[in-house]
From TrEMBL:
The chain crosses the membrane at residues 6-27, 34-52, 64-84. Keywords: Membrane, Transmembrane, Transmembrane helix. This is Uncharacterized protein. It comes from Halogranum amylolyticum.
Amino acid sequence: MTKPLNGAYIILGMFLLGFVPVVFYIGEKVMSPAIIVALSLLLSGFGSWLAGPVSAPSAIPTPFALYILLWVGVVALASLSGGLEYRRKQKVAG
Protein backbone atom coordinates (compact mmCIF):
# COMPACT_ATOMS: atom_id res chain seq x y z
CA MET A 1 0.00 0.00 0.00
CA THR A 2 1.31 3.44 -0.89
CA LYS A 3 1.68 5.90 1.97
CA PRO A 4 -0.07 9.27 1.47
CA LEU A 5 3.15 11.30 1.15
CA ASN A 6 4.63 8.80 -1.29
CA GLY A 7 1.44 8.92 -3.33
CA ALA A 8 1.48 12.73 -3.34
CA TYR A 9 5.13 12.69 -4.45
CA ILE A 10 4.35 10.35 -7.35
CA ILE A 11 1.23 12.28 -8.40
CA LEU A 12 3.16 15.57 -8.32
CA GLY A 13 5.83 13.94 -10.47
CA MET A 14 3.28 12.70 -13.01
CA PHE A 15 1.82 16.19 -13.22
CA LEU A 16 5.16 17.99 -13.62
CA LEU A 17 6.53 15.47 -16.12
CA GLY A 18 3.62 16.39 -18.37
CA PHE A 19 3.27 20.07 -17.43
CA VAL A 20 6.86 21.26 -17.99
CA PRO A 21 7.14 20.08 -21.63
CA VAL A 22 3.67 21.43 -22.46
CA VAL A 23 4.47 24.88 -21.03
CA PHE A 24 7.69 25.11 -23.01
CA TYR A 25 6.00 23.94 -26.20
CA ILE A 26 2.98 26.25 -25.92
CA GLY A 27 5.14 29.25 -25.04
CA GLU A 28 7.84 29.14 -27.71
CA LYS A 29 7.56 25.78 -29.52
CA VAL A 30 10.53 24.42 -27.52
CA MET A 31 10.75 20.64 -28.06
CA SER A 32 13.75 19.50 -26.01
CA PRO A 33 11.87 19.06 -22.68
CA ALA A 34 9.33 16.76 -24.32
CA ILE A 35 12.11 14.76 -25.96
CA ILE A 36 14.00 14.36 -22.67
CA VAL A 37 10.90 13.27 -20.74
CA ALA A 38 9.78 10.87 -23.48
CA LEU A 39 13.23 9.31 -23.93
CA SER A 40 13.69 8.90 -20.18
CA LEU A 41 10.32 7.19 -19.91
CA LEU A 42 10.94 4.92 -22.91
CA LEU A 43 14.45 3.95 -21.83
CA SER A 44 13.38 3.22 -18.25
CA GLY A 45 10.45 1.14 -19.43
CA PHE A 46 12.63 -0.75 -21.91
CA GLY A 47 15.29 -1.32 -19.24
CA SER A 48 12.70 -2.72 -16.87
CA TRP A 49 11.36 -4.95 -19.63
CA LEU A 50 14.86 -6.25 -20.31
CA ALA A 51 15.33 -6.97 -16.61
CA GLY A 52 12.42 -9.37 -16.78
CA PRO A 53 9.82 -10.20 -14.16
CA VAL A 54 10.74 -9.73 -10.52
CA SER A 55 9.79 -12.88 -8.61
CA ALA A 56 10.56 -11.65 -5.10
CA PRO A 57 10.84 -8.18 -3.57
CA SER A 58 14.33 -6.93 -4.26
CA ALA A 59 16.46 -4.19 -2.79
CA ILE A 60 17.58 -3.26 -6.32
CA PRO A 61 14.95 -1.09 -8.04
CA THR A 62 14.13 -1.48 -11.71
CA PRO A 63 14.99 1.35 -14.13
CA PHE A 64 11.32 2.38 -14.25
CA ALA A 65 11.16 2.49 -10.45
CA LEU A 66 14.22 4.75 -10.50
CA TYR A 67 12.49 6.98 -13.07
CA ILE A 68 9.47 7.27 -10.77
CA LEU A 69 11.62 7.98 -7.72
CA LEU A 70 14.01 10.39 -9.45
CA TRP A 71 11.48 12.34 -11.52
CA VAL A 72 12.80 15.55 -9.95
CA GLY A 73 16.06 15.12 -11.87
CA VAL A 74 14.22 14.47 -15.13
CA VAL A 75 12.11 17.61 -14.64
CA ALA A 76 15.22 19.63 -13.78
CA LEU A 77 17.07 18.34 -16.85
CA ALA A 78 14.06 19.00 -19.08
CA SER A 79 13.69 22.53 -17.69
CA LEU A 80 17.39 23.25 -18.16
CA SER A 81 17.38 22.02 -21.74
CA GLY A 82 14.19 23.96 -22.45
CA GLY A 83 15.74 27.12 -21.07
CA LEU A 84 18.86 26.65 -23.16
CA GLU A 85 16.84 25.99 -26.31
CA TYR A 86 14.67 29.04 -25.60
CA ARG A 87 17.74 31.25 -25.19
CA ARG A 88 19.24 29.87 -28.42
CA LYS A 89 16.00 30.63 -30.29
CA GLN A 90 15.96 34.17 -28.88
CA LYS A 91 19.54 34.79 -30.04
CA VAL A 92 18.79 33.47 -33.54
CA ALA A 93 15.57 35.50 -33.81
CA GLY A 94 17.08 38.68 -32.34
